[in-house]
Design goal:
Blueprint (H helix, E strand, L loop, with lengths): L2 H7 L10 H15 L3 E5 L3 H13 L3 E5 L25 H10 L6 E4 L9 H6 L6 E4 L5 H14 L2 E8 L2 E7 L4 E3 L9 E8 L4 E5 L13 E8 L12 E2 L1 E4 L2 E4 L15 E7 L3 E3 L4 H4 L16 H18 L10 H14 L11 H10 L6 H20 L8 E5 L12 H4 L7 H7 L1 H8 L2 E5 L3 H13 L8 E5 L24 H12 L5 E4 L13 H4 L4 E4 L4 H14 L3 E7 L2 E7 L20 H6 L4 H27 L3 H7 L5 H14 L5 H26 L38 H16 L8 H9 L18 H7 L7 H13 L21 H17 L7 H8 L7 H19 L13 E5 L4 E5 L7 E5 L2 E5 L5 E3 L6 H12 L1 E8 L2 E5 L4 H8 L3 H9 L9 E10 L5 E2 L4 E4 L2
Parallel strand pairs: 1-2, 1-4, 2-3, 4-5, 17-18, 17-20, 18-19, 20-21, 27-32
Antiparallel strand pairs: 5-6, 6-16, 7-15, 8-9, 8-14, 9-13, 10-11, 10-14, 12-13, 21-22, 22-23, 23-24, 25-26, 28-29, 28-30, 30-31, 30-32
Helix pairs in contact: 3-11, 8-9, 8-10, 9-10, 11-30, 13-14, 15-16, 15-30, 20-22, 20-28, 22-27, 23-24, 24-28, 28-29
């Protein structure tokens, strides 16, 4: 389909509730283009269904499935919509279509009719017409692939060819001679604030250094907004200017001559925004590229020589298939493997194989496992190629420039298994894994006991992968999954185990049931509990003691760090992954071999200074945080404070107040309960209008009274300069629309504030605009005169100084008593309570208020405004998310699970494991070996011992006495204990009372701890963590030791 036709069709409304998180990745324009696009997927085995699933979740217009082939047991290794009962039946496309169609009601999912065989080239070519992109996911003869590619070119459709075999994968993209990319990387446009503009030719712009580097490159284009000072009239708002970068904080504007600009000394301020430019990319067809592949996209820089080998290998496999009636080599078939090797050598015109020692092993494994469809490989390639399809449909992000190869050969043994009985198919879902790793390794996977923390997007994908892999599907295996959250509509575009009918159900239970539906052999138990110290009675020693490992599917660092500490203590592997839009990362944590997750941490996020929030905002982030804080204070904290007063006696309530905030709290209660208490919705509208006046007019007038526009500091510089933007007063205008987002902020604020106020007081709301217009025009707004003597902090130091304890004394107590006397007695309001409103970014009424409130404050300070969609992301701290990245990271981390289980049949070294980082937008992927754990050097029993965070001194002697503990410690380690502690409790020290020491030595360890802490041990606790300070008996030197892990249960 032509770009013009797509553009004409791309007018449908976007369901922002469904695609909420994805829209922060793709944007509305790209989403609409996707909604006008059609995809054809040829081949619906594991990889094909994975790609289709990701594209359907993303919301393209239609997807046609073409695959008349009957189901084989190998398909079941990756196809989660086929079952063992369907083996031998066909077609794969028709069998998968109904379940794929359930994923998204907006997407038309069709199975192609009239296709009897994938070798019917004319029938396949007839399907290309009207398609935006064609994806081939099964091996076809080279000539057919070239014909399909050429047909796509003639129809203006993008062409993608991708395969997975065993732990090897390939992809090829041809998007035509002139493919326009609207946004090559998806990064947010660079923005900066102007410090000054020099009157030169060309003009030189310097940005505020405390706001960071401008992030521009020579050749970029920028626009200016909210210009102030001498440059007004010389530089235009919203006009595009070319950029020539001269430094990290400076750049020139070629063609902009400001030599005529008069420098009067007035403050220059304004905002700079980068304008992202489209780029046109040219691709080459498969017929040419397969012969001259050029530079390959790498996935692992340690395997820079691997892509050329796999390029030959996949061609050899296809040629073998063509020569053998469409059959791929059987697992372990030595003759077939040798034939593939010979074909590869015949194709090797550049002597690639002759220079490689690894090539015979790689090609042998590729040939032996060519029938095998592994779920982790389908997820990895399906995520990456799913995003390529979306690029073809949307024109957003940079496609793969030709060929891409990927492998996880570290999971494989040194040579193809010679024992045919280990590889023989069993006509079950696990035949693909058996063909690659052997039956004994499959049994190991089925016996695993894993704990997955989180059942959101990553959790759903992980459970699907595990169900296909057979994880915990044996008699002794089990998966435990926990998630406190319930399903929301915004989850459905990427958490594919959920449907519309599941909204408001618990994620963990729904995901567990869906995964078990895919593989009834899966043993799984869902929980709805947080994993934290206060749930250790559930997830305690006895729980972790039976686990094989833990998988985190979390969305916050704090929870990850807690789980990481659990894994450290119990020495369990941890599979960690996360996503941020098109970016994803994976980390495998292996006891003793790699560092733990918490060993390295990102610096904490910078907070906004209070002074900036209160009086001197200069970014929309500041005004949104201020609006959120105001929401919390007015609609949540005020209600909670009133309710606290109403349920307590006067004495109890006064005693509960903090001395330094008592007066302010009582004023809040009186204002909410007496002075401004509404009795009708009209009162709520009046309150909203007067609040507008107070926040955006009166308070600004008071600020300008304290700090006039021409104010100078003691050093002679202008007070309102740099990042301090001089505000302006807003006059209420019900018809006002801001120039940036087109929001009706004045009216929106009053409507949202009035309805929230009404909800807080249990009054029926009203969003009728005509009603608001009528009531608002009759409200009388009192005059305001700025007061003398009001103190406003001019900077953070003054704010911190003024933030100390409020003055206390007789006057404060007297005013507090006066306020208390003016309040109605709780008994007079028996049964009356206010509704406390918690801010929820996904509730439109809440966001309407926060957006309007933020934009009004932005207009006060001449800051560019934002619409509700963008404001929701900032105020709600929304993490952009898309199904493609999620699928990919779970696939990559599941490949590490193979290694942990031992599929390589040898002890793996650190470099065999891989941490991953991917950015599908560029596209970029890199796998690298994890970092080894840091070591602490000690001397124990005369020998050097380098221990890590994984180590402890383990004592498994039962609940012995403290004396027996100390004697054993001395005998075992030749160390004399000088101090022994449990948490903050000292159990023994060399300077302690001798009589008390002797008493404790005769007591059981648990009794000693109880006698000090007065806390009983939970019945599921098996271990005690003890800290020891000890000296070498021979040298009397103190020895650095890890903690003691004492098992008493």
């Amino acid at each position: 389909m032509s770009a013009e036709k797509m553009e004409a069709m791309a007018t449908a409304e976007v369901d922002e509730k469904l695609y909420s998180r994805q829209l922060y990745v793709m944007g509305h324009e790209a989403q609409r283009r996707m909604m006008a696009s059609n995809a054809l997927v040829i081949g619906v085995s594991g990889l094909g269904v994975e790609i289709a699933k990701n594209c359907i979740l993303a919301g393209i217009h239609s997807i046609t499935l073409c695959d008349p082939s009957p189901v084989t047991s190998y398909d079941l290794g990756g196809n989660f919509y086929l079952s063992e009962s369907q083996i031998g039946q066909g077609s794969r496309a028709a069998l998968c279509q109904p379940k794929l169609a359930e994923l998204n009601p907006y997407v038309q999912v069709k199975a192609a009719d009239g296709i009897s065989s994938l070798s019917d080239v004319d029938s396949l070519l007839s399907l290309v017409e009207g398609m935006t992109v064609v994806v081939l996911t099964v091996p076809l003869p080279k000539g057919m692939v070239e014909q399909l590619n050429e047909k796509c070119r003639s129809q203006g459709a993008c062409f993608i060819y991708t395969l997975t075999m065993s732990v090897f994968g390939m992809a090829f993209c041809d998007f035509g001679d002139k493919f326009i990319v609207s946004d090559k990387d998806g990064e947010a446009a660079a923005t900066s604030q102007i410090e000054t503009v020099l009157a030169e030719n060309p003009a030189v712009v310097k940005v505020l250094e405390d706001q960071g580097r401008h992030g521009l490159e020579t050749g970029d284009k920028v626009t200016f907004a909210r210009l102030r000072g001498d440059v007004e009239g010389f530089l235009e708002d919203n006009k595009e200017y070319d950029v020539n970068v001269t430094g990290p904080f400076t750049f020139e504007l070629p063609g902009a001559d400001l030599t005529q600009m008069k420098v009067t000394g007035s403050t220059t301020q304004g905002y700079i925004t980068q304008i992202k430019q489209p780029v046109t990319l040219s691709f080459e067809p498969y017929a040419k590229k397969v012969q001259q592949p050029g530079e390959f996209m790498l996935s692992d820089f340690a395997k820079f020589d691997r892509p050329p080998i796999l390029h030959l290998g996949f061609q050899a496999i296809v040629e073998y298939m063509t020569k053998n009636g469409g059959d791929l080599p059987a697992a372990g078939d030595a003759a077939a493997i040798q034939q593939v090797l010979e074909i590869a050598k015949s194709l090797d015109t550049d002597n690639i194989l002759g220079d490689s020692k690894e090539a015979p092993r790689i090609l042998s494994h590729l040939a032996s496992g060519s029938r095998a469809i592994l779920s982790p490989m389908c997820a990895t390639l399906g995520g990456m190629i799913g995003q390529e399809v979306l690029k073809a449909c949307s024109g957003k992000f940079t496609p793969i420039p030709g060929f891409f190869y990927f492998d996880a050969d570290e999971t494989l043994p040194d040579s193809v298994l010679a024992d045919a009985s280990l590889l023989a198919p069993t006509n079950t879902r696990y035949d693909s894994q058996i063909a690659v790793f052997g039956k004994d390794m499959q049994e190991k996977l089925q016996a695993l006991q894993y704990f997955i923390v989180g059942a959101g997007a990553i959790g759903c994908e992980m459970l699907k992968n595990w169900a296909m892999m057979g994880v915990a599907c044996g008699p002794s295996g089990h998966v435990y999954v926990t998630d406190m959250d319930r399903i929301e509509k915004s989850n459905l575009s990427r958490q594919f185990l959920f449907r519309n009918t599941d909204i408001d159900k618990f994620k963990s239970a729904t995901a567990a049931a869906a995964a078990k539906g895919m593989n009834p052999q899966l043993n799984i138990t869902p929980y709805q509990e947080k994993v934290a110290p206060d749930t250790e009675h559930i997830f305690g020693d006895d729980f972790y003691d039976k686990l094989s490992g833990v998988c985190t599917a979390l969305d916050n660092v704090e929870a990850r760090l807690y789980v990481d500490q659990r894994c450290l203590f119990y020495r369990l592997p941890m599979l960690e992954s996360g996503t941020l839009g098109t970016k994803g990362n994976t980390q495998v944590v292996v006891p003793h071999l790699t560092e733990n997750y918490g060993a390295t941490r990102d610096p904490p996020e910078k907070s906004i200074p209070i002074c900036t929030l209160k009086n001197f905002p200069n970014q929309i982030q500041h005004t949104l945080q201020w609006a959120r804080d105001w929401f919390e204070g007015e609609f949540k904290q005020a209600a909670e404070e009133v309710n606290s007063y109403l349920v307590s006696s006067t004495e109890q309530y006064m005693d509960s107040l903090q001395p330094n905030s008592k007066l302010e709290t009582l004023r809040l209660v009186r204002r909410t309960l007496v002075d401004e208490r509404p009795t009708s919705f009209e009162d709520c509208v009046t309150w909203a209008r007067l609040t507008f006046e107070k926040l955006f007019n009166n308070q600004i007038r008071q600020l300008l009274h304290n700090f006039p526009p021409d104010q100078v500091t003691s050093s002679g510089t202008k007070f309102w300069s740099g990042s301090k933007r001089c505000p302006k007063v807003l006059q209420f205008d019900i018809d006002e629309k801001d120039p940036d987002a087109g929001m009706r902020n004045h009216l929106d604020f009053c409507m949202a504030a009035a309805n929230l106020r009404a909800a807080m007081f249990g009054i029926k709301g009203n969003f009728d605009e005509a009603y608001f217009r009528k009531v608002l025009q009759d409200i009388i707004v009192p005059d305001f005169t700025p007061a003398e003597g009001v103190k406003i902090a001019a900077n953070d130091a003054e704010e911190e100084k003024s933030g100390g304890d409020a003055p206390m004394g007789d006057n404060t107590d007297a005013e507090a008593n006066d306020i208390l006397a003016s309040l109605p007695k709780p008994s007079e309001l028996a049964g009356f309570r206010l509704s406390s409103i918690d801010f929820d970014k996904d509730i439109d009424d809440h966001m309407l208020f926060v957006t309007a409130c933020s934009n009004l404050r932005a207009l006060n300070y001449t800051i560019p405004c934002e619409d509700t969609h963008r404001s929701r992301a900032i105020a709600g701290r929304i993490i952009p998310a898309i199904a493609t990245t999620t699928a990919l990271v779970t696939g990559v981390i599941c490949l590490e699970l193979y290694k942990i289980v031992g599929t390589a049949r040898k002890e793996l070294t650190l470099e065999a494991y891989k941490n991953g980082f991917v950015n599908l937008a560029i596209p970029f992927m890199t796998l690298s070996e994890p970092t080894a754990p840091a070591k602490t050097k000690s001397v124990l029993k005369g020998k050097e011992w380098n221990w890590t965070a994984w180590d402890s001194l383990d004592m498994n002697l039962g609940n012995i006495t403290m004396g027996e503990f100390m004697d054993h410690f001395e005998r075992e380690y030749n160390l004399e204990i000088s101090m022994l502690s449990y948490g903050v409790s000292i159990l023994y020290s060399f300077f302690a009372n001798k009589k008390k020491v002797e008493e404790r030595k005769a007591m059981k360890m648990t009794d000693v701890i109880f006698s000090i802490s007065k806390k009983e041990f939970p019945p599921n606790q098996l271990f005690i963590i003890l800290e020891v300070i000890a000296n070498d008996k021979e040298t009397d030197e103190e020895v650095d030791l890890p903690y003691v892990k004492f098992r008493f249960g």
